[in-house]
Amino acid sequence: MIVQLHHEFREAYGTERLWRELRDRGERCGRHRVARLRRRHAIMTKRRRRFLRARAPYQLTAPAPNRLSWPFASSRPNRVWAGDMTQIPTRRGWLYLAVILDLYSRRVIGWAMAERQQQELTTAALCMAIARRNPAPGLIHHSDRGSQYTSQAYRDQLARNGFLASMSRVGMPYDNAVVESFFSSLKNELTHHERFADVDEARSKLFDYIEIFYNRQRKHQALSYRSPEQFEMSRECA
User: Fold this and answer.
1) Tens digits of per-residue pLDDT, 142-197?
2) Is the overall model pTM greater than 0.85, yes or no?
3) Which of these, 56, 67, 125, 228, has the minimum number of CB atoms within 10 Å of its CB?
4) At a CB cut-off of 8 Å and minimum separation 6, what does 82 contact?
5) Rounded to whole angstroms, how far apart are CA atoms 191 and 187?
6) What is the DSSP pairing of strand 93-102 with strand 107-114?
7) Given CA atoms 46, 48, 52, 57 in this order, what sign does their dihedral have?
8) What is the CATH number of domain 80-237?
9) Are 75 and 140 in contact (CB under 8 A)?
């Protein structure tokens, strides 16, 4: 009967609809049994592929080479920046956060928040970093291969400022370890213990964490237990 109905309905019904049709016709059976029998007899729903099959990652041309290597650091400010984005849960939906860090001091120099994961989010974080630091051409900008960073618009923005794009290898989050470490600290020290009522509350708490606590107060082991701001000021005085 399953085979009969499969062809009767033009091979368009999946397990749920087939099971409901069988029940409507008086056949007593469970949904899991229908699913099991479909798998056993290789009965597949006919569907047109919505996208062309993508090539495997190793077959794709990398948008940019990986220009960083361990230890991930910079001897001077505004020579190596790293960016990434994450999502923050609230009771009224998700809030997305994009950041840019200077690997010299681990300071968050650019950030942006939005309720949707969109191209403008990463662009806004980069624009803030550029406005604050006014870096010289030749800066290395590192990120993962997320669509917001591989988009032509974002890469054009890097090129207009004379930046060299650098991207992590496929499936290697440790290639962007500094930003991953920041997100880990953010979640362990704030978001894992907070239940934000809405995105406005989350925005306020994230601003306070980034600009007041993380950049100015939080001691970093990699910076000899100084905050990013203290580290930068001590180097300027030296």
Assistant:
1) 998 888 898 889 999 999 999 999 988 776 666 788 899 899 889 988 888 888 99
2) no
3) 56
4) 68, 72, 100, 101, 103, 141, 142, 143, 176, 178, 179
5) 5
6) antiparallel
7) negative
8) 3.30.420.10
9) no
Listed by start position, the domains of the chain span 2-40, 80-237
Query: Which amino acid type is present at position 211?
Result: E
- Identify whether the C-beta of residue 97 lies closer than 8 Å to the C-beta of residue 202: no
Helical segments of the chain, H only = 2-8, 15-24, 31-40, 119-133, 147-150, 152-160, 177-189, 199-207, 228-237
- CA dist 129 and 109 (Å) reads 5
d(CA 43, CA 35): 9
- What number of other Cβ atoms are within 10 A of residue 234's Cβ? 13
| 82-117 pLDDT per residue, tens | 999 999 999 989 999 999 999 999 999 999 999 988
| Cα 210 to Cα 110: distance, rounded to the nearest angstrom | 10
In angstroms, the Cα distances linking 81 to 129, 207, 228 are: 9, 20, 14
